[in-house]
Amino acid sequence: MLAVGPLIRRFNTLGRPLIQIAMDFLSINDAVRLMEKLKGLEVDVYEVGTPLIKSEGIRAVRAVREFADDSVVLADMKTADTGSLEVRLAAENGANAVSVLASANDEVIASALKEAESSDVDVVVDTIGRLNVLNVISEVVRLGVQIINIHLAIDVQLSSGKTIADVISIIEDVKNSYKNLLISASGGVRPHHVGDLVRSGVDIIVMGSAVTKAADPAEVVRQALRYVK
Questions:
Q1: CATH number of the CATH domain containing 112
Q2: SS3 49
Protein backbone atom coordinates (compact mmCIF):
# COMPACT_ATOMS: atom_id res chain seq x y z
CA MET A 1 0.00 0.00 0.00
CA LEU A 2 1.35 3.41 -0.98
CA ALA A 3 1.64 6.17 1.58
CA VAL A 4 -1.34 8.49 1.78
CA GLY A 5 -1.17 12.18 0.98
CA PRO A 6 -3.05 15.26 2.24
CA LEU A 7 -6.33 14.51 0.46
CA ILE A 8 -6.70 11.03 1.95
CA ARG A 9 -5.53 12.28 5.34
CA ARG A 10 -8.23 14.96 5.34
CA PHE A 11 -10.88 12.38 4.51
CA ASN A 12 -9.65 10.04 7.22
CA THR A 13 -9.60 12.83 9.78
CA LEU A 14 -13.08 14.20 9.05
CA GLY A 15 -14.77 10.86 8.46
CA ARG A 16 -17.36 12.37 6.12
CA PRO A 17 -17.65 13.00 2.37
CA LEU A 18 -15.54 15.92 1.22
CA ILE A 19 -16.75 18.92 -0.77
CA GLN A 20 -14.53 19.89 -3.71
CA ILE A 21 -15.03 23.06 -5.75
CA ALA A 22 -13.88 22.84 -9.38
CA MET A 23 -12.74 26.27 -10.55
CA ASP A 24 -12.83 25.99 -14.33
CA PHE A 25 -12.19 29.69 -14.84
CA LEU A 26 -9.81 31.25 -17.35
CA SER A 27 -8.52 33.86 -14.92
CA ILE A 28 -6.72 33.58 -11.59
CA ASN A 29 -8.56 36.72 -10.47
CA ASP A 30 -11.92 35.02 -10.97
CA ALA A 31 -10.76 32.04 -8.91
CA VAL A 32 -9.53 34.24 -6.09
CA ARG A 33 -12.77 36.25 -6.07
CA LEU A 34 -14.75 33.03 -5.66
CA MET A 35 -12.51 31.83 -2.84
CA GLU A 36 -13.01 35.13 -1.03
CA LYS A 37 -16.80 34.62 -1.23
CA LEU A 38 -16.40 31.13 0.26
CA LYS A 39 -14.03 32.14 3.03
CA GLY A 40 -15.01 30.68 6.40
CA LEU A 41 -16.89 27.74 4.87
CA GLU A 42 -15.60 24.18 5.10
CA VAL A 43 -14.48 23.78 1.51
CA ASP A 44 -12.33 20.68 1.70
CA VAL A 45 -10.73 20.83 -1.73
CA TYR A 46 -10.16 23.67 -4.18
CA GLU A 47 -9.61 22.28 -7.66
CA VAL A 48 -7.49 24.35 -10.03
CA GLY A 49 -9.39 23.44 -13.18
CA THR A 50 -7.75 22.31 -16.40
CA PRO A 51 -8.94 25.44 -18.31
CA LEU A 52 -7.41 27.65 -15.61
CA ILE A 53 -4.08 25.83 -15.72
CA LYS A 54 -4.01 25.99 -19.53
CA SER A 55 -4.95 29.67 -19.55
CA GLU A 56 -2.72 30.94 -16.76
CA GLY A 57 -0.09 28.24 -16.49
CA ILE A 58 1.14 26.40 -13.41
CA ARG A 59 1.28 29.72 -11.51
CA ALA A 60 -2.48 29.34 -11.12
CA VAL A 61 -1.83 26.46 -8.71
CA ARG A 62 0.52 28.62 -6.68
CA ALA A 63 -2.00 31.47 -6.55
CA VAL A 64 -4.82 29.20 -5.36
CA ARG A 65 -2.54 27.66 -2.72
CA GLU A 66 -1.87 31.11 -1.29
CA PHE A 67 -5.59 31.74 -0.72
CA ALA A 68 -6.70 28.20 0.21
CA ASP A 69 -5.84 28.31 3.93
CA ASP A 70 -6.00 24.70 5.20
CA SER A 71 -8.02 23.35 2.25
CA VAL A 72 -6.48 20.78 -0.06
CA VAL A 73 -5.46 22.11 -3.50
CA LEU A 74 -5.95 19.73 -6.41
CA ALA A 75 -4.24 20.51 -9.71
CA ASP A 76 -6.48 19.10 -12.43
CA MET A 77 -3.58 18.41 -14.79
CA LYS A 78 -5.32 15.46 -16.48
CA THR A 79 -1.86 14.05 -17.05
CA ALA A 80 -1.54 11.70 -20.01
CA ASP A 81 2.26 11.47 -20.22
CA THR A 82 5.38 12.36 -18.21
CA GLY A 83 3.58 11.42 -15.01
CA SER A 84 6.49 12.01 -12.68
CA LEU A 85 7.35 15.39 -14.22
CA GLU A 86 3.80 16.77 -14.07
CA VAL A 87 3.19 15.60 -10.52
CA ARG A 88 6.47 17.14 -9.39
CA LEU A 89 5.68 20.41 -11.20
CA ALA A 90 2.29 20.63 -9.54
CA ALA A 91 3.66 19.71 -6.10
CA GLU A 92 6.44 22.29 -6.34
CA ASN A 93 3.78 24.92 -6.95
CA GLY A 94 1.68 24.00 -3.93
CA ALA A 95 -0.64 21.23 -5.12
CA ASN A 96 -1.64 18.58 -2.59
CA ALA A 97 -3.22 16.32 -5.22
CA VAL A 98 -2.92 15.88 -8.99
CA SER A 99 -5.22 14.28 -11.54
CA VAL A 100 -3.95 11.69 -14.01
CA LEU A 101 -6.05 10.20 -16.81
CA ALA A 102 -7.19 6.61 -16.48
CA SER A 103 -6.60 6.32 -20.23
CA ALA A 104 -2.87 6.94 -19.75
CA ASN A 105 -0.45 4.05 -20.07
CA ASP A 106 0.33 2.05 -16.94
CA GLU A 107 3.86 3.41 -16.99
CA VAL A 108 2.55 6.98 -16.80
CA ILE A 109 0.27 6.23 -13.85
CA ALA A 110 3.01 4.27 -12.07
CA SER A 111 5.55 7.08 -12.46
CA ALA A 112 2.98 9.62 -11.23
CA LEU A 113 2.28 7.49 -8.14
CA LYS A 114 5.98 7.08 -7.38
CA GLU A 115 6.60 10.83 -7.57
CA ALA A 116 3.46 11.55 -5.57
CA GLU A 117 4.68 9.37 -2.71
CA SER A 118 8.02 11.17 -2.52
CA SER A 119 6.35 14.60 -2.83
CA ASP A 120 3.58 13.87 -0.28
CA VAL A 121 0.71 14.44 -2.69
CA ASP A 122 -2.18 12.26 -3.80
CA VAL A 123 -2.92 11.07 -7.32
CA VAL A 124 -6.54 11.11 -8.45
CA VAL A 125 -7.15 8.91 -11.50
CA ASP A 126 -9.81 10.48 -13.72
CA THR A 127 -12.05 8.12 -15.70
CA ILE A 128 -13.30 10.82 -18.10
CA GLY A 129 -13.89 9.35 -21.55
CA ARG A 130 -13.77 5.73 -20.35
CA LEU A 131 -17.14 3.99 -20.62
CA ASN A 132 -16.74 0.84 -18.53
CA VAL A 133 -15.62 2.29 -15.21
CA LEU A 134 -15.39 -1.06 -13.41
CA ASN A 135 -13.00 -2.37 -16.07
CA VAL A 136 -10.94 0.80 -15.80
CA ILE A 137 -10.65 0.47 -12.04
CA SER A 138 -9.65 -3.18 -12.25
CA GLU A 139 -6.81 -2.08 -14.55
CA VAL A 140 -5.42 0.66 -12.30
CA VAL A 141 -5.89 -0.57 -8.73
CA ARG A 142 -3.09 -3.09 -9.21
CA LEU A 143 -0.77 -0.12 -9.74
CA GLY A 144 -1.60 1.20 -6.28
CA VAL A 145 -4.21 3.80 -7.19
CA GLN A 146 -6.22 4.86 -4.13
CA ILE A 147 -8.50 7.61 -5.48
CA ILE A 148 -10.75 7.35 -8.55
CA ASN A 149 -12.75 10.20 -10.07
CA ILE A 150 -15.94 9.08 -11.84
CA HIS A 151 -16.31 11.97 -14.25
CA LEU A 152 -19.08 12.93 -16.66
CA ALA A 153 -17.55 15.31 -19.20
CA ILE A 154 -19.03 18.79 -19.71
CA ASP A 155 -19.50 18.22 -23.43
CA VAL A 156 -21.35 14.99 -22.69
CA GLN A 157 -23.62 16.84 -20.28
CA LEU A 158 -24.34 19.55 -22.84
CA SER A 159 -25.07 17.18 -25.71
CA SER A 160 -27.02 14.54 -23.81
CA GLY A 161 -28.56 16.39 -20.88
CA LYS A 162 -27.08 13.81 -18.52
CA THR A 163 -25.99 14.73 -15.01
CA ILE A 164 -24.22 12.90 -12.24
CA ALA A 165 -27.61 11.43 -11.26
CA ASP A 166 -27.36 9.20 -14.35
CA VAL A 167 -24.22 7.47 -13.06
CA ILE A 168 -25.14 6.96 -9.39
CA SER A 169 -25.73 3.25 -10.03
CA ILE A 170 -22.17 3.03 -11.36
CA ILE A 171 -20.85 4.70 -8.22
CA GLU A 172 -22.75 2.19 -6.09
CA ASP A 173 -21.30 -0.73 -8.08
CA VAL A 174 -17.78 0.63 -7.67
CA LYS A 175 -18.18 1.15 -3.92
CA ASN A 176 -19.54 -2.37 -3.51
CA SER A 177 -16.61 -3.84 -5.43
CA TYR A 178 -13.77 -1.63 -4.13
CA LYS A 179 -14.48 -0.69 -0.55
CA ASN A 180 -11.00 0.67 0.16
CA LEU A 181 -10.94 3.11 -2.77
CA LEU A 182 -11.86 6.75 -2.33
CA ILE A 183 -14.38 7.68 -5.01
CA SER A 184 -14.95 11.23 -6.19
CA ALA A 185 -17.85 12.13 -8.46
CA SER A 186 -18.06 15.06 -10.85
CA GLY A 187 -20.22 16.20 -13.71
CA GLY A 188 -23.20 18.50 -13.37
CA VAL A 189 -23.52 18.10 -9.59
CA ARG A 190 -26.20 20.36 -8.10
CA PRO A 191 -27.13 20.71 -4.42
CA HIS A 192 -30.16 18.43 -4.84
CA HIS A 193 -27.85 15.63 -6.05
CA VAL A 194 -25.69 15.68 -2.92
CA GLY A 195 -28.00 13.62 -0.73
CA ASP A 196 -28.21 10.81 -3.29
CA LEU A 197 -24.45 10.91 -3.80
CA VAL A 198 -23.85 10.60 -0.05
CA ARG A 199 -26.20 7.62 0.07
CA SER A 200 -24.37 6.04 -2.87
CA GLY A 201 -21.23 5.94 -0.74
CA VAL A 202 -19.24 8.55 -2.64
CA ASP A 203 -16.31 10.03 -0.72
CA ILE A 204 -15.63 13.30 -2.57
CA ILE A 205 -18.37 15.41 -4.16
CA VAL A 206 -17.13 17.76 -6.86
CA MET A 207 -19.21 20.84 -7.64
CA GLY A 208 -18.34 23.18 -10.48
CA SER A 209 -20.71 25.54 -12.25
CA ALA A 210 -23.41 25.07 -9.61
CA VAL A 211 -21.09 27.08 -7.36
CA THR A 212 -18.95 29.11 -9.74
CA LYS A 213 -21.94 30.51 -11.68
CA ALA A 214 -24.29 30.94 -8.72
CA ALA A 215 -25.58 34.32 -7.64
CA ASP A 216 -24.77 33.27 -4.06
CA PRO A 217 -22.03 30.61 -4.23
CA ALA A 218 -21.64 30.53 -0.44
CA GLU A 219 -25.27 29.48 0.01
CA VAL A 220 -24.84 26.66 -2.53
CA VAL A 221 -21.86 25.34 -0.58
CA ARG A 222 -23.76 25.63 2.69
CA GLN A 223 -26.57 23.53 1.19
CA ALA A 224 -24.10 20.84 0.12
CA LEU A 225 -22.42 20.81 3.53
CA ARG A 226 -25.76 20.18 5.24
CA TYR A 227 -26.04 16.90 3.35
CA VAL A 228 -22.49 15.67 4.03
CA LYS A 229 -22.71 16.45 7.74
A1: 3.20.20.70
A2: coil
| Residue 108 counted as domain residue | yes
Per the document, the length of the chain is: 229
Number of domains, the chain: 1
Instruction: Please say whether the beta carbons of 174 and 151 come within 8 A.
Output: no
Encode 131-141: b = buried (16+ Cβ within 10 Å), e = exposed: eebeebbebbb
- Phi and psi torsions of 111, nearest 5°: -70, -35
- What are the backbone angles phi and psi of residue 178, rounded to the nearest 5°? -130, 80
Output the average pLDDT for the chain.
Answer: 93
Residue 1 lies in a domain: no
Alpha carbons 84 and 67: distance in angstroms, whole number: 26
Looking at the domain assignment, is residue 164 inside a domain? yes
pTM: predicted TM-score of the whole model, two decimal places: 0.95
The answer to whether residue 41 sits within a structural domain is: yes
Question: pLDDT tens, 133-176?
Answer: 889 899 999 999 999 999 877 776 767 777 777 788 889 999 99
Angle, helices 191-200 vs 168-177, to 10°: value is 30
Residue 187: per-residue pLDDT: 87
